[in-house]
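Subject: sequence -> structure tokens, single chain

Hey, anyone have a minute? Need the predicted structure for the following. Not urgent.
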Amino acid sequence: MPTSPQVGRRPIEQHPDFLSGLREAGPELADKRWAVRRLPRAPFSRRPPRRARAVVAQARALPKPEREHRTDRAPDREGRGPHGAAHQGARVERAAGDRLPAQRARGGPRSALHDQGRVNITSQITPRSPTLSPAGRGKLPVANLYIHLPFCKHKCGYCDFNAYAGMDRLMPDYVDALERELAAAREQREFSQLSTVYLGGGTPSLLPADLIARLLRFLRGTFDIAPDAEVTLEANPASTDESRLAAWLEGGVNRLSLGVQGFEPRALAVLERKTDAAQATRAFTLARSMGVANLSIDLIYAVPHQSRESWVETLCRALALGPDHVSTYCLTFEEGTLLWRRRAEGKLPELDPDLQWDQLDSACDELEAAGFRRYEVSNWARPGFESRHNLAYWRCRPVYGAGAGAHSYATDGTRAWRWWNVARPREYIAACPAPRADGEELPERKAGAEALMLGLRTAEGVAPRAGFEDELGRLADAGLIESIDGRVAPTRRGMDLHNQIALAVL
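Reply:
Had a minute. Here:
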């Protein structure tokens, strides 16, 4: 995925048929950007097929929760945010991700005409232990590491991530700074054996082979990385060549996330991608031939001029390569990006919301038929290939983020803390080994709400939390969640309308 890649959405105001208020969830979801990229979000408020509008009426009936106004939004956009940080990434994902448990949000879309039955949430809640101070119980050790590499050859028109073109000369100094930050963090914080390492961006594959090899050697010499750890690198097909692949594999990378985004020339042109279908195919084939056993592909839908048929063709071409994991992101128009300006100037057509939902339905149909399981709102995997690193985010596990603009998250099991680094590469280099820009401690209820919101992005769901009985009950009545083995999990409808779940619990 930088591909940390991760895509834009159209303003909710332009979709009168969409659920009211869904856009409001955006800033809250942005708070969870512990690792520079936006966490994967639901394709802009999935609209139910015409045949099942009744469930939308139920969802609309959910009361809009009171939420504190945030003044400390994570610094991730040029000229905006408390620290004037630079653009952070636009795809909706790109938290690449993968490896996971069993259950699934059952069945297809449910009709509101059938009695869903209220889930008995209260009976499933296990009281939490009383709050202890950090001195009484320390923060849980970190087992997940994110490294942000913000360099790009070209910044795509839809991207608002913390990524920069034309800064290649800073790469050696930047790697020096990363090593200083990580060495200090290793001394100051408690790390357990690392189970996941994720190199995102930006375009990590852009680093020269010798420089990325040096960074990977440093990581293995500084941290205890588990023999079976998932080590992911986001790659652009254009910079995926034999010498770089050899360096990645020798350094321990065992999972590659390819930012393909599409195969159709017209869609790639709209997105301003500087790669083509032939390069994507060559990169994937080369990676597989050199021994990469875990390959993920990122795709974007709801692109202007993209029909349902052309999107299905894109899915079929991707599946023909034989990936182990596929991320599908709905294009969103992030304010300030070139694509956003082009649409504002009338140079790009508005997308029919019905077509957007038809394309999402097509993704569900094609991927399920090919043996993929939708284990998270925007992510699909073959059994055993779910992103372990992304799952760490969705399960609210501690993550240390290193690099310009990277976000970190810590918890003692009850309370939570997050902090982020300065965003601009030159400022980051100068600030290391102490590049932290700001941070916050989350109140217990907010930490619980975010744990629910993130857990309910996944098919496995999350243990219900005390204090949220009313919210969970209303979501169950609306057919958005269900009870599975003592946990609450999204239904297919809940996966599609995850922003409504977020509004209800945040």
